[in-house]
Write a structure and sequence with these properties.
Length: 546
């Protein structure tokens, strides 16, 4: 079974990449947020999971190579290398400064260039369209030397206007370079507009297939899809592969998303605290499949995936720790075959230490046990098993349970904390209001102990309670009845996302007001705030801006 990616930790690192990149760009007063953000998951999946590389041994003979041909994504690229450990994260703030090693476009490291580069940068990306050719040179050399190194290259869709890309595409298939993987950051925008208006690239899949490449298409912001594609590609022989990653330029900051004007523009420094808050406010929706009509889990998973759920929440109940019984690892094994959405397993069972291996084998991505069902040493053993398998470990706390202080010493290895807002055992229960203060209290304790993981709210989360738990610190929202309690799952999830959006915009507005830049902030985001004006109570603000 392939090593899992510790999904939540990887998601957090990609979030950190965006946060670092935007600070560097704002500090420099220039740079490319659009590309840095559209390629964040792609570069994160490579450096934080897939590629063989050692930040402490940057020239390791057996390393895989990453050729960043889409060089203007430099701020994001530097942020990935910093988060991976090649440089200190504080150095990203020297972006584009005179004498900085982090120049506007990356410079390949060499002794001669040591003042303008750092070990780990394999390629000098200036005018684009060239990186694929360099990647082919490396892949061909390694193949001829019988070496196992793999070569990855990131290319852009604007960059694909360059004729050299297509010359290179022919050469790569001629030489059957099955150790070469190109990833196309398909955000459909280039410097001065939309690619399909400037130089139509579609049908891009057919083009690469016609050049005799193995072509795979993914959602370029779903790391599970990127990593799954990278693993499947390793089995392809005698053909180079390309992953067409459908992405959104500027993804992560709503007023930058899918907007050509944020191709190469820096936000004002005074906006940075709010932009960082926005990047930490992304909400993941996790439908709980025990809710709604009994069983029919397969259909529920399929419909949740179609409706764009971020996670699938799996409530495992043994009829002992909780009054009811649901399903177990064998059911999950079956569901794993039909969906690539990350599985968030919530174990409400006694003695989880005896069963965790079953949920590892079943293909769960996150496994959470209840603090009431294990001792500290049992938790540590469970935690060790999960981390070894690359699964995100979680701990859940019931409404009546005090936060156990022994957890403080293990926070680095806990990716999610479920703070129950109902007594476990059934979906469709009423939200316990007291759990809000408890959640806020626990979040305060965790923050003061440098907890980097996620807070998950579970129990009675719907359109009326989501904003409250968001304000208390939750970022993963389990929703059972709110999703499966009525037939139209699509609009149920849309409604939750709308409430999440209102909660986030309210929080950002509060911060903008505290930072005394309320009208400036509203102005920068006017178009997407107008539809929410009534719910946010900003009609007057918008009127004043006109
Ligand atoms: C309860 C479970 C919850 C529940 C959520 O024990 O852990 O995940 O199914 O369902 P709602 O959202 O309906 O409370
Ligand atoms: Zn649950």
């Amino acid at each position: 079974m392939a090593l899992k990616m510790r999904y939540l930790e990887l998601s957090r690192k990609v979030r950190d990449v965006r946060m670092l990149a935007i600070q560097g760009i704002a500090e420099a007063g220039s740079g490319h947020p659009g590309a840095s953000f559209s390629a964040a998951e792609i570069m994160g999946a490579l450096y934080f999971h897939k590629m063989k590389h050692k930040p402490s041994v940057p020239f390791w003979e057996e390393r895989d190579f990453f050729i960043n041909s889409k060089a203007h994504s430099a701020p994001g690229f530097y942020a990935v290398l910093a988060t991976a450990g090649y440089i200190d994260t504080t150095e990203v703030k020297t972006l584009r400064k005179l004498g900085s090693r982090l120049q506007g476009h990356p410079v390949r490291y060499s002794e001669r260039q040591k003042n303008h580069s750092f070990p780990g940068i394999e390629y000098s990306g200036g005018s684009e369209g060239i990186g694929l050719s360099v990647a082919i040179g490396i892949a061909l050399a390694k193949k001829r030397d019988g070496k196992k190194n793999r070569v990855y290259t990131l290319i852009g869709d604007g960059e694909s206007n360059e004729g050299q890309i297509w010359e290179a595409a022919m050469a790569a298939s001629k030489f059957k370079l099955d150790n070469l993987v190109a990833i196309l950051d398909r955000n459909k925008i280039q410097q001065d507009g939309f690619t399909e208006e400037i130089m139509p690239l579609d049908p891009v899949r057919d083009k690469w297939a016609a050049f005799n490449w193995n072509v795979v298409e993914v959602n370029g912001h779903k790391i599970e899809q990127i990593i799954d594609a990278l693993s499947r590609i390793e089995k392809v022989e005698d053909k180079p592969s390309i992953i067409i990653a459908n992405t959104t330029k500027g993804k992560g900051i709503k007023h930058m998303a899918n907007s050509p004007q944020w191709h190469g523009k820096a936000p004002p420094k005074k906006h940075v605290p709010i932009l960082l808050e926005e990047l930490q406010s992304e909400i993941l929706i996790a439908p709980s499949i025990i809710a709604g009509e009994p069983e029919n889990y397969e259909e529920k998973v399929r419909r949740a995936e179609r409706a764009g759920a971020d996670l699938i929440h799996l409530d495992i109940m043994d009829g002992k720790f909780v009054p009811s019984t649901s399903f177990f690892a064998d059911t999950i094994k079956h569901l794993r075959k039909i969906s690539s959405v990350p599985f968030d397993a919530h174990l409400m069972i006694e003695k989880p230490i005896r069963h965790v291996h079953e949920y590892i084998d079943a293909g769960c991505d996150i496994v959470t046990v209840h603090v009431e069902t294990c001792t500290e040493s049992e938790f540590l053993e469970i935690n060790k098993m999960l981390l070894k398998a690359g699964i995100s470990p979680g701990i859940a706390i019931n409404p009546g349970t005090q936060f156990p202080s022994w957890l403080i010493g293990h926070l680095n290895n806990i990716d999610v904390m479920i703070i129950m807002s109902v007594n476990p055992g059934f979906a469709g229960q009423k939200f316990i209001p007291d759990s809000l203060d408890k959640m806020a209290e626990i979040v305060k304790t965790l923050k003061s102990n440098n907890y980097k993981g996620f807070i998950e709210a579970d129990g009675g989360i719907d359109a009326t309670t989501l904003q409250q738990v968001f304000d208390a610190g939750a970022r993963i929202m389990v929703a059972g009845n709110a999703v499966y309690g009525s037939p139209d799952i699509n609009s149920n999830i849309i409604q939750l996302r709308h409430k999440a959006n209102v909660a986030i915009e309210t929080k950002l507005l509060e911060l903008a007001t505290i930072n005394d830049i309320r009208s400036d902030w509203i102005k920068s985001r006017k178009n997407l705030l107008i539809p929410l004006a009534k719910e946010l109570g900003i009609e007057e603000d918008l009127h004043a801006i006109k």
